[in-house]
Amino acid sequence: MKFSDVIGQSEIKTKLIGMVQSGKIPHALMLMGPEGNGNLALALALAQYLQCENKTPTDACGTCPSCLRNQKFIHPDVHFTFPVVKREDKKGPAVSADYISEWRSALESNVYMSYNDWLQSIVAENKQGNISADECRQIIHQLSLKTYENSYKIQIIWLAEYLGHEGNILLKVLEEPPPDTVFILVVENSELMLNTILSRTQIIKTPPIADADVQEGLLSRFELDEGSARRIARIADGNMNAALDMMSGEEGTNDKRLHQWLVCCFNLKMKPTSANTKNLLDWIEETAKTGRENQKIFLKYAMFFLRECSLLSHTGHSQKLEGEELKFATGLSGRLQPDSYEALLKILSRMHYYIERNANPKILFMSNSIRIGGVFAGELAEME
Ligand SMILES: [Zn+2]
User: Fold this and answer.
1) 285 in a domain, yes or no?
2) What is the domain count for the chain?
3) Per-residue pLDDT tens for 180-226?
4) Phi, psi (rounded to 5 degrees) for 23
5) Distance from the CA of 142 to the center of ligand 1, in angstroms?
6) How many A from CA of 1 to the centre of ligand 1?
7) Could you tell me the residue range of the domain that residue 324 belongs to?
């Protein structure tokens, strides 16, 4: 992957390229930033740039033998470690090498993937992945071997927070790696990282991708109009993976769906007639049919919308809402207490968490509709 293939993040790219150009690449680097912001893409681009035989001051060439291997994720001196679960058909502990072909296909299809996307691509059930002690020992062994091509040995650890305490095994090699070795740790949740590892790496914090860059990224990859790209970008909120999910799902009708749902939740609490109960049940039935991926996209949209409503009520304007949405948001923000937004966002984010873990959507939407109605009670007098 070349730097020019990484969406946005121009400041970070310049920084990384500058480190290589000035010969000041640290032996342990950590890219730390939120899901979907292209941390892994940046790590891949840096690895390719370091090994390119014909690099320019701004990017890898993309055509030398080393670039060709890196672009297929098969360079013999680039090693990958990522969270895995134990393979049923294999004896012994789980290590990344068991899944290397799945890993390469996953990178081919989406380098912005989330931890959950990755795990779901390798196992059916709700197992949790981790990076094992055996994997750590394998890293140390692999890096002690000679390089194949007289280049850097690069070890990318994706989601290094899944090392847990096993990370201690790597302390010595992080501090004094063999010559020409570069560790690139990609981390989303720094709170789960051991301090001992944090203190041994040079940390580069990476921001969410700018809305305009997400929009441009979508326009360059898909045939879609500018309005739709802008709409998706502002909901994705800097997360390219969320934007790509929306491209494959039915994002277009979520504003109407949300409007109907909030009215149903309100009515269920304030005017609990049998007709209103039926409206909610019909809505749940229909939403349950859209499938888990679309339900996740819908909930992301709902969170985006309520965050914007909250902003609207605090500052009097929203830069991201327009048309009917803005009208609905204005009506809503005039009636909700500031605390309500936080309560609603908490409910929605918990729902997203459970949908991701295969909760029954009908039960989940029913119980939380009642909760949301409770938050609304008395605060949404005339909602249409
Ligand atoms: Zn090259």
Assistant:
1) yes
2) 2
3) 999 999 999 989 999 999 999 999 999 999 999 999 999 998 888 89
4) 70, 20
5) 24
6) 10
7) 249-376
